[in-house]
Amino acid sequence: MTTPSQTVGPYLAIGLPWEDGPTVVPEGTPGAVWIRGVVTDGEGNPIPDAMIETWQADPRGRFDHPDDPRGRVPGFRGFGRCPTKPDGTYEILTLLPGAIPGENGAMQAPHIDVSVFARGLLNRVVTRIYFPENTEANAADPVLNSVPEERRGTLVADKTDDGYRFDVRLQGGAETVFFDV
């Protein structure tokens, strides 16, 4: 007998969040920026019980992982997790990532990998956050270039006074681009 399919939410708040999950670096870290946004459904309604996870390289393009022997930035975890609030908003405090090597030696533009878990999804969806000031690197990024030009804007954050805004729309005409990983 098989087990029936279940969605990945709304039970995320039971054991997945932790107190400093949204702070990839401690508050007050020089160069730290906020990435804030809202997760919405296909009709633009906020999703109050979603979960955002981020994974990224440090500003030198290194990962806080045993498989990356190049060292790490003290206090930089590289991983963040933030449940959405009742209004669908989330926030992650981090450092801007550096470029990382890709396939065949091509460099990938600085980006943050994002997983979104929400009610109604059978699996997480995965996207990326790119940054508008990296014009040349973004133009050469092989992953970003695999996305139709008219949809790339859903992957580029907007600059704000204290960081960036990156909204995630799970369905509809302005749906965020998600990758099959």
TrEMBL record:
GO molecular function: protocatechuate 3,4-dioxygenase activity
Signal peptide: none
Disordered as annotated region, ranges: 59-80
EC number of this enzyme: 1.13.11.3
InterPro entries for the chain: Intradiol_dOase_C, Intradiol_dOase_core, Intradiol_RC_Dioxygenase, Protocat_dOase_a
Enzyme category, top tier: oxidoreductase
The organism's place on the tree of life at top rank: Bacteria
Record-linked Gene3D superfamilies: Aromatic compound dioxygenase
Segments of skewed composition (Basic and acidic residues): 59-71
Alphabetical keyword list: Dioxygenase, Oxidoreductase
Location of the Intradiol ring-cleavage dioxygenases domain: 17-172
UniProt record similarity statement: Belongs to the intradiol ring-cleavage dioxygenase family.
Protein name: Protocatechuate 3,4-dioxygenase alpha subunit
